[in-house]
Amino acid sequence: MKDDNCIFCKLAAGDIPTNTVYEDDTFRVIMDANPATKGHSLIIPKDHFANLYEMDEEVAAKAMKLAKKMAVRMKEKLNCDGFNLLQNNEETAGQTVFHFHMHLIPRYKGDKNDDILKYTPLELSDDEMKEILDMIKVK
């Protein structure tokens, strides 16, 4: 399924020229037009899924297998020192284009773009941790 109004559907279909580094029947991997680092690329499914919640498990599994394949290749060919896989879901989490995509971001020691992903850990009581555990635990 495609969305005619979605720019990432057009990119994935090849309707808009891209620097494609990989393509199969399910995905197109393109170099990010505004890269954070050398080699920053995006895995984009050819079918439209607004986010991870809408994606079926088979396609999600294929996305992760492809991410591993691309990360290994980028590590080998670009000689990066680390690697981020980034996938945002919904605006609060930083999603700006509402077509599932996964960022492949090679990281290099001493790179001037040192905005390594980080967060400030919460301090939760044992009771709060137990309450959250009870809500999300898969039984």
Could you describe the 3D structure shown?
A motif (Histidine triad motif) lies at residues 99-103. The chain has 139 residues and is α+β, with helices and mostly antiparallel strands. Helix content is 29%, strand content 18%. The chain is built from three helices and five strands. It has helices spanning 7-13, 57-78, 126-136; strands at 20-23, 27-31, 41-45, 82-86, 102-107. The model has no long low-confidence stretch (mean pLDDT 93).
Percentage beta strand: 15-25%
How many strands? Answer: 5
Shape: globular
User: Can you count the helices?
Assistant: 3
Order of helices and strands: HEEEHEEH
Mean pLDDT, rounded to whole units?
93
* Largest beta-sheet characterization: 5 strands, antiparallel
The spatial strand order of the largest sheet comes to 1-2-3-5-4
Oligomer classification: single chain
What is the end-to-end distance? 33 Å
Structural category: alpha+beta
